[in-house]
Each structure stands twice: as C-alpha cells, then as structure tokens.
Amino acid sequence: MKRVGLGAVLGMLLLGCGGGSGDACPVLGVPPVGGIIITEIMADPNATLAGGVAVDDAQGEWIELLNALPYTLNPSGMQIASGSKAGRLVCTDTVPPGRFFLVARSADPLSNGGLPKVLCTYDKVTLLNSTSASVPDDPIQAARHNHLQILASNGTIIDDVPYLVSGAGFPKVKKGASMQLCRNGLSSEYNDEGSWWYVSGVADTLDSTDLGTPGAPGQDCGAPDTDGGATVDTISGVDTGGEPPPNPAIGEIFISEFMADPKAVTDADGEWFELYFCGDAEVSLKGMYYQLDAKTPVQIKTDVRMLPGTYAVLARTAAALPAGDPPDALFTGSLSNSGAHSLRILDAGKLTLHEVAYGEVSATGGKVTAGASNHLCISDLAFCPGVTQVWEVSVTAFGAGGDKGTPGFMNESCGGVQ
C-alpha cells in the first residue's frame, strides 16, 4: 500500500481546515488510500469473563484502526474484507483525527471479551487464524486471500495487511493474543511488512483474560536491519543490531510539544518533551544534543530511531507517560516553568536544529499551564513546519492522572481540535 505519512497527510490542511483559519474540519466518509491504518488484529480470542463465561470467535474478534487523517472521519458504510467475505461497518460515532478506534463483531462487553468502547460493528467476515490454501475463483476475493482489508464505501482499498500470507514475515496468530503493529511503524506502508508486527503480551482491559491493547498504541520496535533482522529493546524501542542510521538534518526535526509543569506527578518525574521528524528516511537521535536554557548541552546516548512522520518522547522518568507506553529515552535537567526559558535540539556538532522559547505570553511557545503541555499546532507540522509556528496549550487528557497533552501522538490543531 502507498504510505500516507503524517507530513503528507497534514498537507491536506492547505485546504483551510483547522489550523489558524478557524474553519471547521469536514467529516470524511471516503478517506484517501492509506488514511485509515490497521494497527491491531484479534483473530483468535480466548477470553474468559468473570464467572467463567467463554467468548468465541463469532463474538470476540476485533480490529483496531487508526484515523491517520487531519479530519474527523465518519467510518459508517466502510467495509472490512478478508478472503471471500466483506462486511459493512455500522458505527455509533465519528472519529477525530489521530485517534485509534475499535471495530468488532459485537459491541457488548459482556459477550465480546470486555472490550472498551467499540465504535463500529461488522458482520459476515470471520478472521482466519492460519493460512488458507483454498484460493477463491473470484479475482477480487483471490486478491484479498489471507489478507485483511479496509475498504471505502465505494469499494476502494484503504489499507491492506497480508497477515496470513506465507513468506510475508508476520508472526503466527496466537490464541488469546492480538497481533499488533509497532508504535513507531504506524503507517499503511510499514503495516504491509510482517517485521513491523508482534504478538501482544499485554493484559487486556476490563474482565477479559486475552492479551492486547484495544484502543491504545502498542510498543515501539526497532526497524528491520539489512544484516539479518532487528534485535528489539522493547523498553526503549532501540534496534540494537547494525549501525544506526544518520541523524536528522536541519529542517527535518522539530520540538513539537513539551510538558514543563505536570500535575499528575511531580515535575521531577513527569516532565517531557516531544520531537517530530519529517524527513524522508529513517534517522537516529543517538549522538545529538538537547539544551535547556543556556546550560551545557546534554548528549542523547540512546539509539532512538525515527521514521518519517513520527514522534519521539524524551521524559524525566517513565512515570511521565501512561503505564505500558514508555518514553523513547530519558533526559536529565528540568524544564523550568516560571519566567523566560528555552529548549533546543542540536545536531552532533551542537548546531541548533530547532528552538522554542517559552514561559512568557510573548514567547513563541507561550506561557506554561499547570497540568497541560504546550504543543505546536498540527497545521504547522504539515509544512514541516514552516516559518510560522503557532503554539497552544493542550486540551486532550492522557493517562489516569488527567494531565493534558498528546505525547508521542498526533498534535492537536489550533483551537484544541484533534
């Protein structure tokens, strides 16, 4: 499938949606190819609810999707297709940009394995658990044999994952565990490749005994190496095999969000900042520097890999982010939250690649608000970002503590729209 990277998708904001224009974003019913991404598949549930009630495939299968568009999406009428079957989605709501959403055989948590909110249901389609050798005669059905597809209401293929195709490198379907797309591979290009998928080992939600993270991102993984495959550190997302790729150049990496005054945890535990990469090939942050105010620059020693259109989060501690969603690397020092301050990202030669001043009303990054991050508006990231940079205070809550921000995920538009 053609990859729709974040930078390319956000370029659609040139149409005047969101950003600083004040125009409302339209609701799309027919997204472009790659605008909706398959991110998690539960093909063989084995859930047991409280009381020992078992959940079968007909009730417990589900798929997680990501709206990778900068627009609110109405997924009703879209289709799930696999092999000889296709079923239309019946949805109860629209999906804001940058949000994961669940489609399932059943929306009832008492019968579907205790899933969180299911936005859409579908019928007719059964997710196969193993490769099928019986190829349908119909050419359309044959093309999606051992694949899972998302189709627009008019039948256009939006995303296609060959998760059961022999030789594609996907992990085998495991009973009671979902198959997940790596968090740093959230695109319709990388989800074609089995090396970007893994079998979940994270306990499911509510009363279910299944493993998966329905409605939430998976873990970071290392990009596949050309010298025999990745060795993945699942805490840092580091690919420890092979030489790291080059650092990003000026104009390719930007400070996109920072939390200088968390409320859910202490400043010493909860401060973080986020970087956005908009180049055209994988890079590593290893060897680069960050600088807090005029203090001595600190080198990044972790081999943090970034793909085009992705984010990386550096935090004081892992407690800064929700459980199960560790930062890409840790940083030392403190993001002061009163008075005038600055944050810089520097290359290996200590040349400033991007800087944001904050702490005062007149500063580019604005004043600090307790319990909320300051973010670069999503429309500015569409231009990677351009000369004009508009920063606002985040309104989207993350984690159990209620702090606001989108660490590691698509920023809000101006005006708090996401």
First-last Cα distance: 25 Å
Percent of residues in helices comes to: under 10%
Q: Determine Rg (CA atoms, Å).
A: 21 Å
Number of strands: 27
Instruction: Estimate what percentage of residues fall within beta strands.
Output: 15-25%
Mean pLDDT comes to: 81
Count up the helices: 5
Q: Describe the strand arrangement of the main beta sheet, using strand numbers.
A: 7-9-8-3-2-12-13
Coarse shape: elongated
**Which spans of ≥5 residues are poorly predicted at pLDDT below 50?**
1-26, 223-241
| SS-derived structural category | mainly beta
Looking at the chains present, what oligomeric state does this protein adopt? single chain
Number of self-contained structural domains: 2
The biggest beta sheet, please? 7 strands, mixed
Commentary on this structure:
The chain has 418 residues and is mainly beta. It has two domains: 1-219, no CATH class; 253-393, Immunoglobulin-like (Sandwich). It is built from five helices and 27 strands. The protein has helices at 6-10, 57-60, 139-143, 267-270, 378-381; strands at 27-28, 36-42, 62-67, 72-73, 79-82, 85-88, 90-91, 100-104, 120-121, 148-151, 157-161, 179-181, 197-199, 232-233, 238-239, 253-259, 272-277, 283-284, 289-292, 298-299, 305-306, 310-315, 329-330, 341-346, 352-358, 374-376, 391-393. The strands form seven sheets. Strands 7-9-8-3-2-12-13 form a seven-stranded mixed beta sheet, with no helix packed on it. It has a six-stranded mixed beta sheet with strand order 23-22-17-16-26-27. The longest helix has 5 residues, at 6-10. It starts with 5 loop residues before the first helix and ends in a 25-residue tail after the last strand. Residues 1-26 and 223-241 have low confidence and may be disordered.
